[in-house]
Hints:
Residues 6-63 form the Terpene synthase N-terminal domain. This is Terpene synthase N-terminal domain-containing protein. This protein has helices at 2-25, 29-41, 49-62, 67-81, 86-92. The protein has 93 residues and is mainly alpha-helical. The protein has one domain (2-92): Glycosyltransferase (Alpha/alpha barrel), CATH 1.50.10.130. The longest helix is centred in the first third of the chain and has 24 residues, at 2-25. The protein is elongated. It starts with a helix and ends with a helix.
Amino acid sequence: MLKCDAKIKERAEELRGQVKSMFNDTTDLLQTMELIDSIQLLGLDYHFQKEISKVLSRIHDAGIDDRNTTLLSGFSCSDNTDIICPQVICLIL
């Protein structure tokens, strides 16, 4: 039984590494936000808080004006902090 548990943990770590590399390999912000959305829907975002925070900071610092990216980042931000980001409030108004 322990051998099986070790293999499962090893495979889980391998998959986490693959997802983390997806954050580094993707330069398209909308594609990255869709990745974050999928991770959050699966309930796995707690594994990738550092990567998600970096992406949200990058969007905020760049002043992205794309409506889709802003909406996705706003929802991602609200999932992380239980508040709605200013970008989303501006789009709603």
